[in-house]
Specification:
Chain A is an alpha/beta fold. Chain A contains 18 helices and 34 strands. Helix content of chain A is 28%, strand content 24%. In chain A, the strands form twelve sheets. Chain A has a five-stranded parallel sheet, covered by helices on one side. The chains are: A alpha/beta (676), B alpha/beta (289). Chains A and B meet through loops of A and helix 10 of B.
């Protein structure tokens, strides 16, 4: 019996209709494609009226297949599948084809775009007729959650979940949780003491009965899928026994080797070879840095071991790899700062008194290397004038095109601190001031009142080449003041470069482990930029904080909490529906060669010794199709992606190809015009 | 390694030392330079400020004349280099300009497809194509003890060609280091020398020249090496005028970088065009060695 296909072409307002002649596509499909019972176009197919239209047609016309030509299936596949399901049609007999992202948004020629839309619709019709009804599968959700990253976003997510009574594993690669926020002195625009609001949260997490904290650890590998992920975590050797150490700090005090701390102190201060990054670290268990430790260098010293009152130092400790099971994962891996050497005209690394914003954070931190005194690199002199340069590596087509979002406000915070602590004159060199959150514009007005000078212009260079006596011994800021419309040279003692926020160096690698993608710039891609900001395209993996894009503390906290709420909803529901798009092996045809066992990236294929053949563990299969392509006996088929379906789709795309143009007659159009 | 060679007008007269030193150094390094037959002036900065089509056509003629067997042209003069590069880019990015320029070329029986010839600067060639190990290997008289201030000027590294940082270039610094010189990392090394401003407003031009000389002097440079005929002319020929204008007493030899490469590689100084400079480099080159 022939199928009865319904075709629904969406205008998407003017999003599709602006470039594609939608009415023509629908009319053409209705008259030229085989087995089409209904073909309609509509302004907004995803609206309730559009859905109702499809449901009514299924019932009245007895449609057996539905094709929707609209936006990306990422956005509305669920919507249309549900509509079909409501009308009693198996949802997997509905096929979406993308006429927006794949056609109207990427083409300008109306005639050619319309032609392409027809091809895609023809392909979908060809394919949908071959599709088979499938039943979605339900999977139990493990109530435990993994949070990757112990910065403020990860901490917030952890606290929310743990307080709700669910177990959380918190993985942090540094020896302590706290993230960048632990390095700051004050936070804008309220000027709260950063440590005062962060450290209580850190200790809450450290002591929480539902939290398993894994610091100095990294995620090695993630397998499984939503509801039941298996995660391997490498606990790096601390060389300090976690259970015996009381955190008394004698080992740190007695360690004879002092090195520059390039991580927590941003190169501004020192630490010992055995260290906790800062006094309020959680946990207070130190680690030994083997690169600088005298024992690891020369085989003797062991001062820490000799003096430890609880015998907690263990030089024989090895990395340990553990495996945990979780239902969901929240990625909160944060950001790193742009390397300011990348703009050599600003002299960082060459001119001593040019500082990065992270260096300055440490400089004005009461617990920092100068006890919060703002001093030049000599450690003695207070600056009489300070220049703060915005957008260093941001809004710059040579480096990062995006706006880092937080630097304007951080620059104002720095300006306030300099004005408060010194008698210095403060200049800000900005392109545009971005102060668009609650209380931010007010803070900007406050700094204007306090006397911070705002110069609108991108700095051309920072130089020590003086031209006038007043410039001798100073750093001269050369810039065009675009409000005055002239070049200015402003001599100062200290320069602070507001470096861009960049994705972590290994963000792509981590994304690959988790199966989530990054934007061109390297930030993790959310499921929907407006309506689903903390979920990702991979079910069960969420993102929070700056790993998804530059973000300040309030926004990071909001995302941490939002991600936790999403996870809690899944745990509370208890089960999750997963796509039945999996591979299956025809036991009769399987010869038991085991090629697929090794090919499967998810370890989802098992060999049965008794039966001498392989079978797919459905719960683990992601439907990637590798085994299908790899099986020499063609004994494996992928549901929803079988050969008949793929070939029908290809033939549909080629509906207008001239048969035999290469003389082989291979390209016979599948969707032959009716009556041909 | 074979390249088309476009010397340009300056290298035929005021910058003769640049031409002879480029040819000598190239030969020693195994770089074969084939001078473009019947090349013409690039129009310097003047044509482009008057009429883009004329400027492009005049310059494209040189590109069209590059021997068909070659796909790279070397221009030591900064203005020539920039103009050739700019024309090739304008033609490839603007089909209409490409069409018009080729119409003009056709009048002379010529044709040029943008992108056919890659325009290179001699510094890029030496630093990138020959490279550090080969250069270091060939140094027979290291420039040790000579404090050299490398001067880039504005045109070679801007707009970026990818071979050096346009804001704070380092490749000439690197090359001088390989030759054993003490390189002076002075802050104005990519600032403008004033170009033709000497002909329009002497006080403006002299101030720009003074800044360069002053900074090099502040960093105790023995000499400045440059890669542009205009820069060399301004800093060298106007040095005395600048001194009398500001009451300063600069006496800094200004030579082309290829002359010093030649010295380090052991080429006879007489073959490198020394003596043509106005502030004599002899004392530095001879006495310091």
């Amino acid at each position: 019996m022939a199928e009865k296909v319904g075709i629904y072409v969406c205008h998407c307002g003017s999003n599709i209709a602006g470039t594609v002649d939608v009415e023509d596509v629908a009319k053409w499909a209705g008259t030229h494609l085989k087995d089409v019972a209904v073909a309609r176009d509509y302004k907004f197919m995803c609206s309730s009226l559009g859905q109702q239209m499809i449901e009514d047609d299924i019932k009245k016309e007895g449609l057996t297949r539905v094709v929707v030509g609209a936006c990306s299936p990422h956005l509305h596949e669920k919507t249309f599948r549900r509509a079909c399901s409501n009308a009693g049609l198996n949802p997997y007999l509905c096929q979406m084809t993308n006429l927006r992202e794949h056609v109207s948004w990427v083409h300008t020629d109306r005639v050619l775009a319309t032609q392409k839309a027809k091809s895609l619709v023809a392909a979908a019709v060809g394919r949908v007729k071959q599709q088979l009804p499938l039943e979605p599968m339900k999977v139990k959700v493990n109530p435990a959650t993994l949070v990757i990253g112990g910065g403020i976003a990860g901490l917030q997510a952890t606290v929310e979940l743990a307080d709700a009574g669910y177990p959380v594993y918190l993985v942090e690669r540094e020896p302590s949780i706290g993230g960048h926020m632990a390095q700051f002195d004050k936070t804008f625009p309220t000027l709260d003491c950063s440590a005062c609001i962060l450290t209580p949260k850190m200790s809450e997490v450290g002591q929480h009965e539902n939290v398993t904290m894994l610091t100095y650890s990294e995620v090695e590998d993630v397998s499984g899928s939503v509801g039941e992920f298996t995660v391997r975590i490498r606990k790096k050797a601390r060389y300090v026994n976690y259970d015996l150490c009381t955190g008394c700090g004698i080992c740190v005090e007695k360690c004879p080797r002092k090195v520059v701390d390039n991580v927590f102190e941003a190169g501004m201060g020192y630490r010992k070879s055995i260290y906790t990054p800062f006094p309020q670290a959680v946990p207070r268990i130190p680690v030994i840095d083997t690169e600088s430790c005298i024992y690891f260098e020369r085989g003797k010293c062991k001062a820490c071991q000799k003096l430890c009152p609880t015998n907690a130092i263990d030089f024989e400790q090895k990395d340990e790899v553990i495996e945990i099971k979780v239902g969901n994962i929240i990625t909160a891996t944060g950001w790193k700062m742009f390397d300011c050497h990348g703009l050599p005209q600003y002299g960082y690394g060459r001119l001593a008194n040019v500082f990065t914003s992270m260096e300055f954070e440490r400089l004005c931190n009461a617990a920092g290397p100068t006890n919060g005194k703002i001093l030049l690199r000599d450690g003695k002199t207070e600056p009489e004038s300070v220049a703060i340069i915005h957008c260093v590596g941001s809004r710059d087509s040579r480096h990062n095109e995006y706006c880092s979002g937080i630097c304007c406000m951080a620059a104002m915070k720095f300006g306030h601190l300099v004005l408060e602590k010194t008698k210095a004159q403060v200049y800000s060199f900005y392109i545009d001031i971005r102060a668009n959150q609650k209380g931010y514009e007010e803070f900007y007005q406050r700094l204007l009142q306090e006397g911070m000078s705002f110069v609108r212009g991108k700095v051309a260079e920072i130089t020590d080449a003086a031209r006038r006596p007043a410039e001798e011994g100073k750093l001269i800021i050369q810039c065009e003041d675009t409000l005055l419309g002239r070049q200015r040279r402003i001599p100062v003692d200290m320069v602070i470069l507001m470096g861009a926020l960049e994705p972590q160096a290994d963000a792509k690698e981590t994304g690959l482990k988790l199966g989530i993608s990054c934007s061109m710039a390297g930030w993790y891609t959310e499921r929907h930029p407006k309506l689903d900001p903390v979920a990702t395209m991979t079910d069960g993996i969420f993102v929070a904080g700056a790993c998804q894009g530059p973000k300040d503390i309030p926004a990071s906290v909001a995302q941490g909490a939002a991600a936790a709420a999403r996870v809690m909803a899944m745990i509370t529901k208890g089960t999750v529906t997963v796509e039945p798009i999996v591979a299956s092996i025809d036991e009769e045809a399987c010869s038991g060669c085991k090629i697929c066992n090794n090919l499967c990236p998810y370890n989802a294929i098992e060999y049965d010794e008794a039966k001498q053949n392989s079978h797919v563990i459905t719960a683990l299969c992601k439907g990637c199709g590798t085994c299908v392509a790899g099986c020499p006996a063609q004994a494996i088929s992928g549901a929803h992606f079988n050969n008949e379906q793929i070939f029908a789709e290809i033939e549909g795309v080629l509906w207008d190809a001239q048969p035999g143009s290469e003389g082989n007659g291979a390209a016979t159009p599948a969707a032959e015009p009716v009556g041909a | 390694m074979k390249y088309a060679y476009y010397p340009g007008c300056s290298l035929e007269c005021s910058s003769g030392a640049y031409d002879v030193s480029v040819r000598e150094v190239a030969e020693l390094l195994g770089i074969k330079l084939l001078e473009i037959d019947d090349w013409n002036c690039c129009g310097a900065t003047e044509y482009f400020s008057q009429d883009e089509l004329t400027a492009c056509s005049v310059i494209a003629r040189n590109l069209a004349l590059v021997d068909p067997s070659l796909d790279q042209v070397v221009a030591p003069c900064a203005a020539c280099f920039l103009n050739l590069k700019k024309t090739d880019r304008l033609m490839s990015e603007h089909p209409e300009m490409n069409r018009k320029v080729n119409q003009c070329l056709a009048a002379g029986g010529l044709n040029y497809q943008p992108g056919r010839v890659k325009v290179r600067h001699i510094l890029d060639l030496i630093v990138s194509d020959i490279g550090e190990p080969a250069i270091r290997d060939k140094v027979v008289r290291p420039l040790s003890g000579i404090r050299i201030a490398p001067y880039y000027g504005c045109q070679v590294v801007r707009p970026t060609d990818g071979f050096d940082n346009p804001e704070y270039p380092m490749k000439l610094d690197d090359l001088m280091t390989w030759l054993g010189a003490e390189v002076v990392d002075y802050p104005v090394k990519a600032h403008c020398c004033g170009g033709h401003m000497t002909q329009i407003s002497e006080p403006q031009a002299f101030e720009l020249i003074r800044r360069l000389l002053q900074s090099a002097a502040d960093y105790q440079a023995d000499m400045i090496v440059c890669m542009c005929p205009m820069c060399q002319l301004n800093l060298d020929a106007y040095q005395a005028r600048v001194n009398s204008f500001f009451g300063t007493n600069f006496k800094i030899p200004i030579v082309f970088f290829t002359q010093m490469v030649g010295v380090a590689l052991g080429i006879d100084r007489k073959k490198l065009g020394f003596g043509k400079e106005i502030v004599s480099a002899a004392a530095v080159v001879v006495a310091k060695r």
